[in-house]
Amino acid sequence: MLEIMRILIVYGTRPEFLKVYPLIRELLKIDNILLSVINTGQHRDMVLELESFFNYSADIYLNIMTEGQSLNSIVSKIVLACDHLFDELKPDFVLIQGDTTTVMSTALAAFNKSIKICHLEAGLRSRNINSPFPEEFNRRTVSLISNINFAPTENAKTNLIQDGVKAETIYVTGNTIIDTLKLVKKRLLTKVEDNKVHILVTAHRRENHKVGIKHICNAIRDILSIYENVWVTWPVHPNPHVMDIVYKELGQIDRVSLIKPVNYLSLLELINNSHIIWTDSGGIQEEAPEFNKPVLILREETERPELITCGLGFLVGTNEALIKEKTIQILDDKQYSDSLKTVINPFGDGMASIKIAKILAGLE
């Protein structure tokens, strides 16, 4: 008879929930795993909306979110809350996903309690400690103290080994976001077919605030002046460093649809209906290959180079000339567009959660 293992999963943001949800489903099927789940509330409303969409509720809600709080405030609240909860729940493993402040804070609290740490989506690196901020710091810090590392790709495993992580603690599993996409795709509305070319734009990274956002707006105007059939949709982040500039620059421009942030299903439908995506989002870089969509990465570096290697990603930063050049190349090169239909998703096959659950249960 297998010994009971107590696993505690902690998440607090939309990307974290999307990537731990399929694993939660698998772990609940395993008899020798006693699972508890905490939602820190770092992105309270967005995560509650997702939980409702998937008809799921965490076991414990910390509700740490307050308006205008600093990163240090988030860290201190989560560490103190986890300190008490770890004493109460006595987990054998704490499992965290990605690189958010919730992740780093939970890992720190677990380390200080000598509790083993499992890091899901381990090994992503930009090699620039300030970009993305604070995510690059968070994931590097967590790698220093994790006991088990679930790397989504071979490249991520290589990064971990280069940083001194022992190879025997690393498992290459694929990315669990693909598992979630497999669950959700059947609920998408039928793709809209029309004569328009749709460009989806998302941008919110701190390093792109103000100046970078202005350059993106300029590039949009340039593309619209060249192509009469191009339409742009931009779900605008509510941060004033983004929103104020976008609405000032593009609010009165024809063929630009500025909308409020959308729920996850609606975002996937926008991805599915687009011809090109301009984004600084890490998640969309992983989701776009599932729909065979080319992505202009609005950053100076990416921790997901697999997207570039497979031919779907172009690193353009917020360089107006480069954004314009790559967009024109994609729109005008039919041979390239046709080749996208055969690209295999470099981030996984939708089986990552099953693999991880078996490893945790001691079945592999």
TrEMBL record:
The entry's protein name is UDP-N-acetylglucosamine 2-epimerase (non-hydrolyzing)
Query: What SUPFAM superfamilies does the annotation carry?
Result: UDP-Glycosyltransferase/glycogen phosphorylase
InterPro entries tied to this protein = UDP_GlcNAc_Epimerase_2_dom (IPR003331), WecB-like (IPR029767)
Q: Where is the UDP-N-acetylglucosamine 2-epimerase domain?
A: 31-360
Which enzyme class, named as a word?
A: isomerase
Q: Does the keyword Endoplasmic reticulum apply?
A: no
Q: Per the UniProt record, which EC number(s) apply here?
A: 5.1.3.14
* Matches recorded under NCBIfam families: wecB
Highest taxon listed in the record's lineage: Bacteria
One Pfam family here:
Epimerase_2
Q: Which UniProt keywords apply?
A: Isomerase
The UniProt similarity line reads: Belongs to the UDP-N-acetylglucosamine 2-epimerase family.
